[in-house]
Amino acid sequence: MRLAPVILAAALSLPAWGARMATRVAHCPLDGAEARTYVQISSNTLGGWDSDLASYASHGQWREYAITTCPKDYFTLLGTDFETPRDEATLARLREVAREVQAEVRDPTTLETWDRYAIAARFYRALGSDEAFVGGLYLTASWLARDRAVGEYLGLEGPKAARETLKLGEAELARALSNADRKKVTYNLARVAERLGDASQRDRYLDAFATLGLDDAEREALARFRLMVGTVEPRFQDLAIAEYRAYLGKPGRPPAEAARVTYLLADLLRRRGRAAEAVPLYRQAADDPASSEQIRDLARTMLEGL
Fold first, then answer.
1. pLDDT category, 87, cuts 50, 70, 90?
2. Cβ-Cβ contacts under 8 Å for 304 (sequence gap 6 or more)
3. Three-state DSSP state, 86
4. Exposed, middle or buried: residue 134 (CB in 10 Å: 0-12, 13-18, 19+)?
5. 67-69 and 55-56 beta bridge pairing
6. What's this model's pTM, rounded to 2 decimal places?
7. How far is it, in rounded angstroms, from Cα 117 to Cα 147?
8. How many other β-carbons are positioned within 10 Å of the β-carbon of residue 86?
9. Residue 21: in which H helix or E strand, if any?
10. CA atoms of 94 and 85, how far apart (whole Å)
11. What confidence tens digit (pLDDT) does each residue in 98-149 have?
């Protein structure tokens, strides 16, 4: 069975939103300025999902639009929470965070969506959100960097599918391919390895791709890929790890949520090259009766590769 190469050009451009959504004008709660909020009407999961529960739609990801930032004071929350009424004491805390953010953001045009998720984390802390929620914001920010690295790679339904695709890809590379096809296959295997969270395979494929005589667009795609997976994604994964550890270090957590966070912490540690720390957490999630069936199955699947 051959691995059909995905056209490389599709990976060299950023995705456009294809699912249905609507926009509305909202009023910023701290200064009354107008801000655009997006409302999701429908989506799809044709892009599959990854071991850290990142899901993908075709033609763009809702997470890119789910967050709203005020243009003047940078007040930032998920659009679903943006206009929730709040008392004066809460508004005072939020204004203090806004002043801190304003002092730090010198050029708002440089803010990427993942930066806005990091800003949102600060506002949610002021609202009293727990570490699992804040960790989820950082995790989503890491997915945004992964989106930017891999573009649209449709149909990977979890780590088993990713592993099988990598096997098929190795068989394809063993064949006599034109340089153009070898570039396509090699680059796409790097994308699959990134979604699987196998950094060593990903980097091996990227290094091989770099030797195949790249044009300007391909060099740009390679540089973007390496920046995302080497700098941006790990930064937010480490922030999520810290929040999830703090969450699990406190007593009285709901068992199902603690099991979910335990699994996510394990997978983040694995993705950061810390497999020895990940293994006992995967086992804990696999054996925990509070884990969902999906979490138990995923934990066992990930243990098979360690």
1. very high
2. none
3. coil
4. buried
5. unpaired
6. 0.92
7. 15
8. 14
9. strand 21-27
10. 13
11. 999 999 998 888 899 999 999 999 999 999 999 999 999 999 999 999 999 9
